[in-house]
Amino acid sequence: MAEELYTYAVARIRSRELLLLNSDFIEQLMAAKSYEECLRLLTEKGWGGKGHTDVEQMLSEERDKAWALMEELVEDMSVFDILRYPNDYQNLKTAIKLVYAGKEGQSPFVRHGTVDSATIMEAVQSRDFSLLPERMRDPAGEAYEALMHTGDGQLCDRIVDKAALEAIHQAGTAQDNEFLGRYAEQTVAQADIRIAVRAWKTGKSPEWTRNALAACDTLDVEALAGAAESGLEEICEYLRHTVYAEGVPELEKSLSTFELWCDNHLIREIRPEKYHSFTVSPLAAYLLARKNEIKTVRIILLGRQNRLSKESIRERIREMYV
Amino acid sequence: MENMGVFFALLGAVLAAVMSGIGSARGVGMAGEAAAGVVTEDPSKFGKVLILQLLPGTQGIYGLLIAFITLTQIGILGGSSDVSLYKGLLYFIACLPMIFVGYWSAIRQARAAVASIAMVAKRPDQSGKAIIFPAMVETYAILALLISILAVTGIGSVNI
Predict the structure, then answer these.
(1) Helical ranges in chain B per DSSP H
(2) CA distance A230 to A233
(3) Phi, psi of B4, rounded to the nearest 5 degrees
(4) Number of independent structural domains in chain A
C-alpha cells in the first residue's frame, strides 16, 4: 500500500520534468554571445522569477523552489533526510567557526536542512549540544573543542564531515527505498575516495586519513587509507578491484574530472526513475536533477562572467537528467 | 444441506461483485491520484487523463453483471430457488474467473493507467497510444467475464 502514497506527487513531478533544462538548452547557453544573453535565456525558462541578476541569489531561489515543491507534495519530509543532512553539518561547521571567530549577526547558513540553523547556532553559542539531534551532539562537541583548543579549522572540518558521511550512510542503511539507499552508499564512497586523494596530495599522516574516512559497504576504508599512504597509483590500483573501477581513468587525470564522472554517473543511475510511478524515488531523482542543473548553470554563468574559454567551461559541464 | 446450494451460489455472486468492485475502486482511485497530479500542473490535460482514469472501472461493472446473472439463474430475483448443493458449488466455481481476474486485472490495469498518465503528462500528442497499454489488460477481464457468463448460464441445463 505504501507504494501508492506518492502517485499524485510523482504525476506532478512528471509534468515538472518538462521544465528541467536539457542538453539542448545547455548548448544554447554555451552558444549565447554574452553573460547577459545567458541570463535572458534562463529568465525565459522561468529562472530568477523575482528579477535577480545576481547569480548566487538566482540559483538560491531555484533551490528554494525545488524544496518548496517537495514540501507541498510530501507530508513527511524525513524521507529526504539523506539529501538534507549535508546542509545540517555544513551549518554546524559554519556555527562553530563563527563562534570561534567571535562573529555574530547575519551568517552564511544554508537552508533546507533537518535542523533550523538558529538552533544550531544557539547550541554552539551556549555549548548546549543537547539542543541538537543525537547524531550531531558528539561530533559537534568534539569539533568545537578541537577548534577552540587547537585553532585547527581543518581538524574541525574533518570531524564534522566524517560525522555527516556517517549520518548519511546510517540513514541509507535504514532506508526501505533501494534508490535512496544506493545513493547514500555512493555518496559516502565517492567522498571517501576524494578524501583519500586529497590526503595523499597534501601529505596527511596515515592516522589523519583513517580518522577522516567514513565506513561504507562498497569500499574497505582501511585498504583505501593504506593505499593513500603510498600514492595515487596505489589508490587507483585498489579502486580497480571495486565497483568504482570505471571512474579510475578519470581519477588518474585529475580530481575534478573524477568529480565530474561521479556527478555524471549519478545522473545515469537516476535516469530510470523517470519511468517509475509510485515510490518516493522519482521525487528524490527530481531533486538531484535540479541540484545538478543548478550546479551546471552556475559553472556556465560564472565561467562566462569571468571570461573563461568555452572549452574550459565545456569540460566542467554535467550531463542532464532529461 | 439442500439450502447450502443457494448459499454457495449466492456466495459466488456476491464475491464476483465485491472483489471486482474493490479492484475497480482501488484502481480508479490510484489512477485518479495520478490524473489529479497532472491536472494540477496542466488543467488542459483533463479530458485525456480522465479516459485513462476510468479504464480500471469496467471490472466492477463486469462483476455486477455476473452477480446479476447468477442471482437470476438461482431464482433469488424471482421464481424457484431450488438449487442442489452440487449445482450451488458449480455456480460458485463459475463465478471464480470473475472474482480473481476481476480484482487483479483492475489493479494491474490501474498501474498501467498511471504509467500512461505520466506519458500523457510528458507527451500529450501520444495520448492515443497511451490508452492502448492499459486497454490491453482489459482483454483478460473480458475473457474472464465471458467464461463466467457461459458457465453460469450453462449450469441450468446440467442434470445433477
Answers:
(1) 4-41, 46-54, 58-73, 85-122, 127-155
(2) 8
(3) -65, -25
(4) 3
What is the tens place of the pLDDT at every residue in A250-278? 999 999 999 999 999 999 999 999 999 99
pLDDT above 60: residue A302: yes
Q: State the Cα–Cα distance between residues A300 and A306, nearest whole angstrom.
A: 10
Classify residue A189: in a domain, yes or no. yes
Q: Are residues A111 and A164 in the same domain?
A: yes
List the one residue out of A253, A194, A190, A196 whose CA is nearest residue A224.
A196
Nearest CA in chain B to A276: B115
What residues of chain A, 262 to 321, have a C-beta less than 8 Å from chain B? 275, 277-278
pTM higher than 0.80, yes or no? yes
Interchain contact A14–B (C-beta under 8 A) = yes
Amino acid identity, residue A219?
A: L
Residue A178 exposed, middle or buried by CB count within 10 Å (0-12, 13-18, 19+): exposed
3-state secondary structure B75-119: CCCCCCCCCCHHHHHHHHHHHHHHHHHHHHHHHHHHHHHHHHHHH
CATH number of the domain that A18 lies in?
Answer: 1.10.132.50
**In this complex, do A278 and B37 lie within 8 Å of one another by their Cβ atoms?**
no
Domain extent, residue A24, equals 1-74+280-322
Total residues found in chain A within this entry: 322
> Could you say which of B40, B114, B121 has the minimum Cβ distance to residue A7?
B114
- Candidate from A4, A11, A13 with C-beta closest to B117: A11
Burial B22-52 (b: 16+ CB within 10 A, else e): bbbebbbebbbbbbbbbbebbeebeebbebb
Average pLDDT of span A134-155: 95
Per-residue pLDDT of B79-114, as tens digits, reads: 777 889 999 999 999 999 999 999 999 999 999 999
The answer to whether the beta carbons of residues B11 and B94 sit under 8 Å apart is no
Distance, CA of A258 to CA of B37 (rounded, Å): 38
Whether residue A273 is contained in a domain is answered as no
Mean pLDDT of A105-122: 88
- The tens digit of pLDDT for each residue in B29-79 reads 999 999 999 999 999 999 999 999 999 999 999 999 999 999 999 998 887
Among candidate residues A174, A205, A234, the one where a domain is terminated: A174
A8 at B interface, C-beta within 8 A = yes
Which DSSP letter does residue A106 get? S
Predicted complex ipTM? 0.85
**CB atoms closer than 10 angstroms to residue A317:** 20
Contact indicator for B60, B106 with CB cutoff of 8 Å? yes
What are the cell numbers at A68?
518548496
